[in-house]
Every structure is written in structure tokens, then in C-alpha cells.
Specification:
By secondary structure, the protein is mainly α.
Length: about 100
């Protein structure tokens, strides 16, 4: 396991130049500022909670929600590309079998 101190975390986060990282960088800045100001950071409990026996639900910061949506969209695109690649490979195998026979 690698540990990163606050200075290292700030360097890592600010070192990312991709536009998609903007929301995450804003959230990390908010978390760091809150911890420095209040001594801790906690998510707000959600207005609607699951059944009492379940865990507590929390409100997710908009930056994290946006990042999760972007990751899910990327995952869906990647899955579709992998399906297309698999279909192409299957077609190539069939053509090679026809050539070999």
C-alpha cells in the first residue's frame, strides 16, 4: 500500500490536465478545505433513507456524481467497442477457416 501526504495529494490531483478531471479536482479541493477548516469531512445523510436495518444513505457531491456518470458512459462505450472487436475477430476466424478448408 502506498500512502500520500497532503502535499503529494495536491500535486497528484493538480497534475492531471484532462478536462474530465475538473469535477474531481473541484471536489478534492472542497474536501481539503473542509478538513482544514473543520477538522473532518462527512457527506450529508440523504433525505430518503433505506429500511432501518440497511446502511445509511448519503448525499453525493455533484462533482462525484458527474464523474461517476462520465465513467459509466465511458464503460458503456468501451463495452460496445469490445463487442464490435469480438464480432470482427469471429468473422476473421470464419473466413480463415473457409480459406483453410
Amino acid at each position: 500500500m502506498n500512502l500520500v501526504d497532503l502535499q503529494g495529494l495536491i500535486r497528484l490531483v493538480n497534475g492531471c490536465t484532462k478536462p474530465a478531471s475538473r469535477h474531481f479536482k473541484e471536489w478534492v479541493s472542497e474536501v481539503i478545505a473542509t478538513i482544514q477548516r473543520d477538522g473532518s469531512y462527512a457527506l450529508e445523510p440523504a433525505a430518503v433513507q433505506p429500511a432501518p436495518a440497511d446502511c445509511t444513505a448519503y448525499v453525493m457531491p455533484q462533482q462525484i456524481t458527474d464523474a461517476l456518470v462520465a465513467l459509466e458512459q465511458r464503460s458503456i462505450r468501451t463495452d460496445e467497442l469490445l463487442r464490435q472487436i469480438n464480432n470482427s475477430q469471429t468473422a476473421i476466424v470464419e473466413v480463415l477457416r473457409d480459406i483453410a478448408s
